Amino acid sequence: MTRPGYAQLQDVILDPDFPELDLALRRGRHVDRDDVAWYALLGDAQDHLEAFYRRYGCELIHKPDGYFYLLPTGDKLSRRQLAGGDMLVGQALALLYLHPSTVERAGLHTQEELIAQLAAVMGSDALIRAFNPKRRRYDERVAQKTVRARVGEAVRRLAGLGFVELVEGDQLRLRPSLLRFAEPVRGLSEPAEALAQLVARGEIALEDDGAATRDDEALADDAAEPDRDDRASDDDDDDGEGASGGDGAPPVERVPGGDDGDAP
Amino acid sequence: MIAERRLSLELGTLDICFLVALHVRGEAAGLTAFTEAQLEDVFAQASAAAEPKADQLRRRATHAIQRLRDQRMLARVDGQGVVRTGEFALSRLASGIVQFFLEEDVLTRETLGLLTQSLRVAIAGVLEAARRAEGPAAWQDGVVGPLRVTITELVAGIERRQRGLDLSQEDFQAEIRRLLEADWFGAIDRCQDLLESTSATLRELNEVLLRDSSALLALLQDIEDLAIAAGEPDAEAAAHRLMDQVDRIVAWGSARQRAWSEYFQYVHRYLRDVVRLDPTRALMQRLRDQLAGAGRRFALAYAGAPPIRLLRAVAPIPDRPPVVRPRAPRERELAAEEGEDPQAVLDGKVARALGAGATALSAVTGEVTAALPAPERFVEAGRVAQTVARLAHASSAIERPWVAVGEDLEIEDWSIIGGTGGTGRAGGTAGAAGPATAAATGDSAGEPGRGPR
After folding, report:
1. Handedness of CA B10, B14, B15, B17 (dihedral sign)
2. Are residues B67 and B39 in contact, defined by beta-carbon separation less than 8 angstroms?
3. Cα–Cα distance measured from residue B411 to residue B441, given in angstroms and rounded to the nearest whole number
4. Residue A157 DSSP SS3
């Protein structure tokens, strides 16, 4: 896997692309073939970098679908997990990625199509409830507006992590790393068993009721204050009060969203 | 006019098939007109294709022929009326409709090669005409006309077919989707065949474009050079415009090749990563169930290192002087100072003038006010008169003469009888009441008789 130019780790670190790639990986960025230079660097220096990141308590994961990402397995590097709303949006995007219509449009979809997909699969009421969890009674128009706003924010966060690329206008280019959202149902084994394996590897964390509620509360609070700054809400929740993840998974920080704006 | 005549067309699928079949039969057999028997025969073929289960062919053929005649698609051309069975030809309207549906205006290697060859021959002919042309008429007929009409049409033909190819590309992408939706795993081979064939077509088109475009551009450049040398701006402009069009065609080929390359990779990746790994298409259903709420909720984990904190470069803060209250009193003590009495000064000046032997008020005024600016002289003249009256004995006639003092001042003059230097009063009527009247000239010339007080 290591090309002659990267005979040693020092050669990798001296590569001009390495600093930005390293920062992006540490902030949760998924790198696929569309990130041509980074993907080539990771592919060529995979052996060196796997050993390098292992010293930081991380695994450099390379999926057969054609993407890399960094997964913290120890406590040396912060570890986060996606919020409930982001997970819903990510799964809907993964569904769109698998749909044949994606081939026709070379991976481009609009945000409206994404919301339509969510509504079609979950049902409009469930979708509204998912993004307005604390409200027993709601104005339909306001609730729908909140859903659109929350989905837009989730898309931006997922774009920062390299799951989608924001193209001009309202368009999104779906990227292969979205298949991570389908990991629990990809194999031949039962989803519960697959989930347990993924949890054991630290790839995912199961949401216990308390954690889910807290997450939903954060969403609801945000919905009540539509103008509130996203980063502020991130900081509020990023208090190190990590959900255990259960089942022996490493502790994680639970935040409604990750860093955004780091994509090259 | 069209609204007044209530024109309309009503053509079903069978009618269009019938027209197309007639057109094809005519092309194949070199027919310009069809007998009634031929019409019925062609209708039978069209009906077999469009409505295979329909019966009563002859009756339906009669109706179809009548419908087309009513709508001016078919016209009887033999002019024999009832004498014998008629002959019918497709009208221009019908030919237009058929060509719209039938003409394959899509760029292929064959059509592009044919068009570029024709273009090359035509441009070479124009180049020859340009070399022989003598005079504007020859340039117009032999060069500008063909460039604007014949060759522009050929180039437009290529561009039209390019647009057709673009449309067929969109159809192709939709076709890939349809194939996958209809037969998920089984469609892989068919999709790959489609991709390969389209790639080959685009590659061949690009080869033809690259090969022929340089020759076309060289010929057009020669024509443009000749036009410049002959001073024919029309021909130069026409050649230049065509060169732009050829450039555009080549750019189109490159752009499509690039775009296709990306799409090609994307579809291959999709077929490999999605279709082959999920042959039964179960993944989509399971993912849909997961999104709908089946199973336990989970969240993906990812690295979330905070951004590195870069400390700001600190500049040394300069020592600022302490803030203190001024000790010295802000307000100075008031002190009495000797002032200069302007009247005393004036008295001195007047006395010096009188002492020097001045015998008229005008002389004293002129000397005392010589150094003053004009506006002040007017005011000062009054004060001088008062001072003179006080310091000397003055007399005046009843009609006092106006005497100029400098260039911009006139005063009513007095005679001064003996300067005293004391405090005697001026005699006569002058005196305290205002002994003299002065008038300013120049700016104040319009105000005669205005005297200083």
Report:
1. positive
2. no
3. 10
4. helix
Q: What tens digit of pLDDT does each residue of B180-196 get?
A: 888 888 888 888 888 88
Helices (H), chain A: 9-13, 18-26, 36-44, 46-54, 84-98, 100-104, 111-122, 124-131, 140-160, 191-201, 209-224, 230-237
Asked if A69 and A77 touch (Cβ cutoff 8 Å), the reply is no
How far CA B249 is from CA of B115, B213, B388, in Å, comes to: 12, 9, 107
- Verify whether the Cβ–Cβ distance B297 to A66 is below 8 Å: no
Residues in B touching A27 (Cβ below 8 Å): 303-305, 307
Q: How many residues does chain A have?
A: 264
Question: What homologous superfamily does CATH list for B109-278?
Answer: Chromosome partition protein MukF, middle domain (1.20.58.590)
A198·B273 Cβ contact <8 A: no
CA angle A167, A151, A158 (to 5 degrees): 55
> A70 touching B, CB under 8 A?
yes
Q: What is the CA radius of gyration of chain A?
A: 19
Contact B302, A71 (CB under 8 A): yes
Q: What's the sign of the alpha-carbon dihedral B125, B131, B132, B138?
A: positive
CATH label, B2-102, candidates 1.10.472.20, 2.40.240.10, 3.40.190.10, 1.10.10.10: 1.10.10.10
Domain A4-72 has CATH 1.10.10.2250: yes
Chain B hits for A182, CB-CB cut-off 8 Å, are: 283, 286-287, 290
Domains A4-72 and A80-254 share a fold: yes
Domain residue extents for chain A? 4-72, 80-254
pTM of the model: 0.57
Per-residue pLDDT tens listing for chain A (264 residues): 445 568 899 999 999 999 999 999 999 999 999 899 999 999 999 999 999 999 999 999 999 889 999 999 988 899 999 999 999 999 999 999 999 888 888 889 999 999 999 999 999 888 988 888 776 677 778 888 899 999 999 999 999 999 999 998 789 999 999 999 999 888 777 878 888 999 999 999 987 644 443 344 444 444 444 433 333 333 333 333 333 333 444 445 544 443 333 333
With a CB cutoff of 8 Å and minimum separation 6, the contacts of B57 are B40, B43, B44, B47
* Residue in chain A nearest B262 by alpha carbon: A106
Structure tokens at B436: 């003299």
Q: A173 touching B, CB under 8 A?
A: no
At the topology level, CATH places domain A80-254 in: Arc Repressor Mutant, subunit A (1.10.10)
